[in-house]
Amino acid sequence: MNPYLAWPKSAKVASVLFMVISGGFILISAKEILIPIALAVLVAFLLHPLVKRLTRWGIPRIAAVILVVGTSSAFVAGLGYVVSSQLKSFADELPSHEPNIELKVRQVKAMFKGGTLDRLTRMFQKINRRTEEADPEAAAREQVDKGAAASPETAEVAREVTDLAGSAAAAAENTVSPGGRGEAAPEPPPATSQAGPPADLSSAAASLMNSPLISSIVNILATAGIVILLVTFFLVQQSDIRDRIVSVAGRGALATTTKALEEAGMRISRYLLMLFVVNSTYGIAVAFGLWLMGVPYAIMWGLAAGLVRYVPYVGPWIGATMPIAVSLATSQGWWQPLWVIGLFVVLELLSNNVMEPILYGHSVGLSELGVILAAIVWAWLWGPIGLVLATPMTVCLVVLGRYVPGLRIFDQMFGEGAAVNPAVRLYQRLLARDGEEAEELVEEFLKEKSVIETADNLIIPAVSLVRQDLAHDQIDDSDAERMSEMLRDLMEEVIDKGRAGNDATPPGETNERPLVMGVAAHSEEEAVLLNVLNAVCSDAPCRVEILSSKLLQSERLAAITERSPELVIVSALPPGDLPYARQLCKRLKATGSARRIVVARWGHAKSVDRSPQLRAAGADDVVSTMAELEPMIQTVYHMQQVSRLAGNAPEGRAVVQAG
């Protein structure tokens, strides 16, 4: 047994918080080391199928790894060379499009002239002028400046004053020496024509290497080299690394570790492969479409669009920004930019709604909210590269959460499976007095399931939760009564829709159908579940009557004795139902008013089966689901038909059959 399961809840919460906080601190502090390792792991997952295929063809593993890694590196380097050369050509060509850019800017300004933006601009200018007029000092200075500019005589006087002030300052500087007043200042040494020493080449090289651009290039190349080295090592030593991870986990966790590694590897490999296919086809489609439209350097923009699409959500529109801007700068009209925008919109819709659902499916195992939260968290931890690594890294955490109890929070927060099953959701909505959402939940369930499956998998578990919380004082009697009433109304509105028009009995034979009566053992929740019998019996030619739980037991027994039904169903809901159900069965058996008694002990656990005690009290059968009860109700009608045939048969034939 896992010792973690025996920990108190507070210790479990504290351990999870400690792991999350310490893990976040390590991820932030050691990101310079962890980012290349994470990139290398993802690239190794992407290239592993190719290496595996080559080894199956008889190529040695080391040679296959070198071939795959070398070819991939050369391909990436070639793409980088093409992009850099096209980018340089575009930068050299851009100044020639300056007149077209100015024309577009003037057209945009003319388009918005007199509009909302223009009116707002003029309003702010008017407010600024009024503010300056309200400042008297600023107004006086403005008047002086205007007067000086308007009067030539005033301007001449100002120039003379300025010249006199300059002459006085020069005379004072010539007559005052550094040593004291009245001494002549020493003449400066004559200038020499000899040039200074040549600049130090080492200092120039150091300053060049310390420039931000060179530092960024060096860091990128160093990271790329480390990633290539790690990818080669991971692919060559794959079996050894796997064995080491299993040995660290220990013999007791061998099965869990193996399943986690297999599931994580399968999900990440499929995700990366499908992501590569989607982004590659997206980039090719962008390049081809831009080439048809005549946008310059279409290959470069298509490649950039495919690369930035690895960044979730914002990547596609970042990739669309530059082609749209280039089209605006180089095209003569406005049609080409509009066509470029339409191209990206159409491709994004096709990619999101057609290709990704077909290729991805549910292979990743993350919810949409989980993907968004993962992108935010990893971008905060590792910056832009964290957006690229967000989905694969979160997949690993979700897989660990499925197999490691202490990390289950990651599966619950980011996994695609619902954290709450439908029955708990229905109970929670009833507890929150949200009848509309509860009705929507039942309707959605009925679209995929039958009435019997809806009762067994949704309604009965929800009512059982009501009963359990009532027994443990989590809710009071008023809450239980309110939720029971909501369930009763809900089933009348929703379940009756599913059985509308399914009456299998022809008109005029209602009174001839066998009678099935339902009676609750002692609570209102048990009576609510009996209402589902009307839907269950929609295809059975039987009459179903439900006795109110508010009647006294003697009144219910009298009603059953008076009607003499073919079948009596005693509804019992654990816990605390057994004494009431046994007493009711004994009294029904004593009166002999029912031909058959079935106790429906809804959702009881097999480990606490009380069927022998109920049978000893007079019950003919004990069931726990509607699926078990429905065939018994169907049998009642067939037994009645057999009895009628036997009663209507000729006497001689009956004797022969008896003999």
UniProtKB/TrEMBL annotation:
InterPro entries: AI-2E-like. The keyword Cell membrane applies. The chain crosses the membrane at residues 12-28, 34-51, 63-83, 213-236, 271-293, 334-351, 387-404. The keyword Ligase does not apply. One of its GO terms (cellular component) is plasma membrane. It is found in: Cell membrane. It is a multi-pass membrane protein. Residues 129-145 have a biased composition (Basic and acidic residues). Residues 129-201 are annotated as: Disordered. It holds the Pfam family AI-2E_transport. PANTHER family: PERMEASE PERM-RELATED (PTHR21716:SF53), TRANSMEMBRANE PROTEIN (PTHR21716). Belongs to the autoinducer-2 exporter (AI-2E) (TC 2.A.86) family. This is AI-2 transport protein TqsA. The gene is tqsA.
